[in-house]
What we know:
Structural class: alpha/beta
Number of strands: 5
Shape: globular
Strand order of the largest sheet: 2-1-3-4-5
Number of helices: 5
Mean pLDDT: 91
Low-confidence stretches: none
Largest sheet: 5 strands, parallel
Order of helices and strands: EHEHEHEHEH
Distance between the termini: 17 Å
Amino acid sequence: MKNKKQILVIDDVSTNLRFVAEVLKDTYSVSLAKSGDQAFKIMEKIVPDLILLDVKMPEMDGFEVFEKILADENKKDIPVVFLTADSLEEYEEKCTLMGAKGYFRKPLSYAPFVKFIDDIFSSEE
């Protein structure tokens, strides 16, 4: 049996973390972090195949977390998808310009979200 792909979800809202874990747990191995700092501690132990990253978080927002990921030689190639409740085009443009793999708006809808994640992995094969 193939190893499950590892996804790290970074979001300061517990409800969002639980939703993502619930919808992805059968197909993927999911790790959860409530902050950028917690995510970097997790990444000392595991190297995720994909990071799902909330934009608006206290202390360190998603863009700052992504900049730290990009600055780390061992993490800079991990694909990152931003998750946000904002529908501002400038956010989407910033995500793209920074090199994010994608952008998905909250509230997350089960089937389109799962298809979006599956498509990211199938495009890499």
